[in-house]
Amino acid sequence: MGRDDPRATGYAGPKLVELRGATITKVLFVDDEPAVVRAVTVAFERDAFELRVASRGDQALRVLEHDEIDVLVSDEHMPGMRGSELVARVAKSFPDIVRILITGRPSVDTTLDAINHGGVFRYLTKPFSMASLRTAPTEAGVRRREHQVNTELLRLARAQVDLVRGTVAQDPTTRPPPPVRPPCRAWVR
Fold it and tell me: How open is the CA angle 64-67-68, to the nearest 5 degrees?
C-alpha cells in the first residue's frame, strides 16, 4: 500500500454499494396508483437504482426501519397519510434520507409543508417525464453521498484536532507558563 492509497490511513470512505464501478442508489418509491408504480419500476430497472416500493405511508415507514434507503420518492395524495406528512416524519426519524415529493394536484400549502416540514430536495408535479423522475433520485443520491463524505471528513478533522489538543496538553514544553502574580506587599505603618 502506497502513501496515497486511502487504505493506508484506515479510511475506506463511506459505505456504498457498487456495480461495475457505478454507485447504486437505493430508492423507496411510495405511490398508491398501481399503473404509476409499474411504470416507475420498468423505468428504474435500466438505471443504477435498487428500488423498493410501498403503496402507503405506513408501509414506507416499516421499509425504512429495516432497509437502508438513500432516497425517498413519495406521492402526496395517498390513503391514510399524505406524502408531505410522510416526508416530515422521515426528516425527523431518518434525516440523512433525501426526500422527493410528487403530486398531481400541486398547491401552495402542499409545497410549503413539503419544504418547511419535510425538507424536500425536489418537488415534482404529475404528469412527469420518466427522464425527470430518474434524474431527481440520481442527483439526490449524489447529494447524499457528498453529505456522507463531508460528515466523515468533519469527524476525522475533529478527531485530529482532539488528538493535537491532547498531545499539546501532555507536553510540558507547550504548556503556557503559569500566571505571574504580583509581589505581595505588606502594609507598613
Answer: 90
